Amino acid sequence: MINNISTMKSIPPKNCSGCAACANVCSRSAISMQLNADGFYTPIFDSEKCVHCGLCEKVCPSNNIVNNPAEVMHSPKSLGAFAKDDAIRLESSSGGMFTVLAKNILDDGGFVVGVAQQNPSQFGFIVIDNVTDLSKLRGSKYIQANVGDVYSKVRSLLNADKKVLFSGTPCQVAALYAVLGRKKYENLITVDVVCHGVPTHLLYDKYCKEIEHRKGTVVQTLFRDKVFGWKLFSMTNVIEYSNGNCFQKKISSHHKENPYMRIFLSDLCLNNSCFECKYAKLPRIADISLADFWSIRSFFKDMDDDKGASLVLLNTDVGELLFNSIDANQIICRHVDFEKVKKYSPRIYSPVQRIDDEKRQKIFNELKNKDITLEQIVRKHLNKLPLIKRIYYKIKTIRYTLFPLFGSHVSNY
Question: Is the peptide bond before 283 cis (omega within 30 degrees of 0)?
Fold first, then answer.
């Protein structure tokens, strides 16, 4: 008999991040992760398989504070950086530093773990062992990923003395450490993204259905396309049309006008646990933290070319060792004072703030209503952009359409 009445009685459902540590550690396969009514992954328990051992409670990162087994710095070494290769920067959300770090591991015979779009509606963790597949992990995925059994796979690789670079949100990195237990693996390096919070799958499902109703089938989504630059990033969908001849086309809209991004960035569709995240803090959970260096102009004006820059935090000696092994000819990099830069990136040290529970609930109810569109939700609940900003963004999109930032637009389609 399968039910969703958690045996983890000490963990309120609202605190569950969907990290899947419990499912990965259960030797009886009594726990599976499924989307709940609000569109977030949650553990479902099979009461016939469960032996009430309590291991799921012991590893839950929401129930117990998990720490990086290495010594972590409260004021990490901080750098502004980006890849010199424009093709890497174009396909990356910020400066392409994840790709540079990951390539270093792959070239050394290691494995890299991260989130990929596995099919039009499924985002989940995969393990790669070659540079060709690295493009699957590149770029932000503003949707909750299906973790699957990836922590168990990582443990098997580590026990086989394979080097592994694991990337994920802070709660997912904490979940990995929880599953691995107290053993310190010298061949593991972790990277966390400075996370804004994860939106409900209800939003993405509704978004895709509306596109498919008007245009064609969504086969891939680029949440942070740079067709209009890094700062005015766009949500781009690869649409497959089938009207006699099957062909694909990329449709972009910048985040200031895209209804998905407007609702996501309002913080009104995030998982409840994101507002109480125990790992959006200092010291960071991972060996390296990566974020957009939005304030780079305030520190290094000559590095602000609107192609993307990364803020890199080296939280442990393990992370610093990996970063220092990068070929200096691959990147542009400068040190920055952490105490000065952190005030521009509050998600480094604190979770996203809860805004309006009543409005949040209304939005969730409307996301479940097939007769209400995302544009209607935006108009009803979110402030309209001032006219002067709409004109500015329109001019910028026209400019980059006529004179692409990266020369001719690079496309895999």
Answer: yes
pLDDT in tens, 356-365: 999 999 999 9
| Exposure class string for 380-405: b at 16+ Cβ within 10 A, else e | ebbeeeeeeeeeebeebbeebeeebb
Residue 43: what are its φ and ψ, rounded to 5°?
-75, 135
pLDDT at 347 over 70: yes
Q: What is the CATH number of domain 2-59?
A: 3.30.70
The distance from CA 19 to its chain's CA centroid, rounded to whole angstroms, is 13
Q: Are 51 and 37 in contact (CB under 8 A)?
A: no
- The mean pLDDT of 34-39, rounded to a whole number, is 96
Instruction: Say if strands 288-292 and 164-168 run parallel, antiparallel, or are unpaired.
Output: unpaired
- Domain limits of the chain? 2-59, 77-198+270-348, 201-267+352-402
Distance between first and last Cα of the chain = 46
pLDDT of residue 3 exceeding 60, the answer is no
CB 270 within 8 A of CB 199: yes
236 φ, ψ to 5°?
Answer: -115, 135
Which pTM was predicted?
0.93
